[in-house]
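Hey, can you fold this one?
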Amino acid sequence: MAALPLPLPLPLPLPRGHSIDRISVVIPAHNEDEHLGRALKAVQRAADALHRRRPDVDVGVTVVLDSCTDGSAGITARYVAADRRFSALEVAVRNTGASRAAGIQAAGVGSSRRRPPGKRWTPPPWAGRTWLANTDADSQVPENWLVRQLEFAEAGADAVLGSVEPDPAGMDPELLRRWLERHPFEENHPHIYGANFGVRASAYLAAGGFPKLASHEDRTLVQSLRNRAFTVTATDSMRVLTSGRIHARAPHGFGAYLRTLGRHRPTAVD
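Sure. Predicted structure:
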């Protein structure tokens, strides 16, 4: 009698409560028409790559147009018209933290701060299955950006801190060298970049969401997550290319840091 075929191996179950069925991408923009088209194209490619791998996961992209007076709204409108995954939100806050929070709220994730005082708060059931992916309008995410975040999330991460690399185009080579010297590309790195940051919606809500800060809103949220013992993972496996400009939009953001780094050049030795 012929041997019976061996049964196909069953897929390993996901850790309980870690499966993701929705990803919301939020991109704040203030007068970024020089970079925004490339940023949106990169996010679109990342969403397409995720769809090929996991068509069961819904993806939405919200572009938050904050006090824009340039062509950013028109660039966004073209993507909204051509791709149902994209939407636009106009605000006038001139504040990165508030813009990110508004975009997340527009995507259907509210704020835990509205719970009645004295009441124990538990996240809604959908929040554990929703992932919030954040980047910036002057940055280009890699094609594997959403795939890798989903993998980390479903392995148990509550937040993922990706790495960034300044775009060498138009950047002082010496400044780039000095930045790379101080920011080696490695796993478990110590850096926090709003241009490459993902967080589970339930953790985001429990930690209070993005504060309304013009700078360091990402660091403040990550510290709140760590204070509450959420699992925060840092990785270089989904590196984002970001603008190397030194004329910063945020007063103490990435561009301001590059400008400060450029001022402290080593003294030449004869």
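Confidence is low (pLDDT under 50) at residues 1-13, 266-270. Let me know if you want another pass with a different chain boundary.
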